[in-house]
Amino acid sequence: MPGFELFSDLERKEVNDVLENGVLMRYGFDGMRNGHWKARELEKELESQLQVKHAQLVSSGTAAVSVALASAGIGSGDEVIMPTFTFVASFEAIMMLGAIPVLVDIDDTLTLDPEKVKEAITSKTKAIMPVHMCGSMANLDALQSICKANNLVLIEDSSQATGATYKGKPLGSIGDLGCLSLDFVKIITAGEGGAVLTNNEKFYRHADHYSDHGHDHVGNDRGAESHPFLGYNFRISELHAAVGLAQLRRLNEFVAKQKIHYTIIKEALSQIPEVKFRTVPEGGVESYSFLNFFLPDLEFARKVSKSFKDNSIDACFHYYDNSWHYIREWQHLKDLKSLYPISKEVKNGLAYLQTKTFEQSDKYIARNISCLIKMSWTEEEVINRANKMAQIIKTIN
Ligand SMILES: *Cc1c(COP(=O)(O)O)cnc(C)c1O
């Protein structure tokens, strides 16, 4: 990860196809486009590769989450359960609809703890949104049965785990809705972009219309379309879809490359008794985009993180002190620093963040180091890196 490490003639060819006839819009202009429908083509290929009936491309992964929630009818005052460890996009996408993010502890999978999810359900809860962080996944069987028992929608955010599977099924295809990001740093990139995946016809129709101003996409003459409901513009462009199309065709190659590099580093670190690896739920196969491990305590992890940096081991993260991915440093959310007024309902709904502590999440994130696996490393570079990492951890006590 990320896909941009290996840009090639394949991406260039798809982009040139679009530029040659000049139609950068994904809908309409049928006569001008010489049969090029890159967004449509990418949706078809996402459907077949990720084994889902419908894929709707949108402008970002954050938009994908908002569109997915809106498609399921979730909005003002509704509660959505999400993990404490994710990217800020998760609560942004929920709050954009006037809904309330309910943050819940993670366990040693580094994703939602199903037991803590059960405790967080109220009469306002409408959805559970596990985020498959750093290439692995949540316990989807457990979350799915909680959703069934409580009549809740299951929305998977697999932005960081495209290419991973759970019990033989691609992540993103298992919940009622799945979301992907195709932003610049993801395993397959379109520059910017995202996708909503679903097997539900109604949710798909909602996502299709809602992400394009509520247009119903009936007929060829765009001006004649009607609007069954209100929408916004979360469209992807043909240029972005063209890059994404070439990248999706290389997803298996990318995952295979990551697996080789991941395995070399994991084997080197397995020799160290202080290192423990994250739990991957039974039946899960990672996308190998990150290697995550736990050290004995916070101080140990901070020392390792610093020493990695001092010794040019790049792209390893200690998320405990990081303001992008973990609740501890999301001060702008806790203080509700909004440019515009926020409803009383949402303010009240988020008041718990003033006092609530997340000791269980702290326990895991404090000790966790997460290392990005690059595809562009040579085998020699990976072996050197693995040995250097092991050496550094061994010298810290
Ligand atoms: C990247 C990411 C997103 C948001 O994607 P954008 O395309 O950058 O908007 C959402 N969730 C997770 C877990 C991500 O890593």
UniProtKB/TrEMBL annotation:
Record bears the keyword Amino-acid biosynthesis: no
UniProt feature coiled coil, ranges: none
Keyword Transferase attached: yes
InterPro entries hit by this protein: DegT/StrS_aminotransferase (IPR000653), PyrdxlP-dep_Trfase (IPR015424), PyrdxlP-dep_Trfase_major (IPR015421), PyrdxlP-dep_Trfase_small (IPR015422)
Record keywords, A-Z: Aminotransferase, Pyridoxal phosphate, Transferase
GO MF annotation, one: transaminase activity
Highest taxon listed in the record's lineage: Bacteria
Family to which the UniProt record says this protein belongs: Belongs to the DegT/DnrJ/EryC1 family.
Protein name: DegT/DnrJ/EryC1/StrS family aminotransferase
Organism listed in the record: Winogradskyella pulchriflava
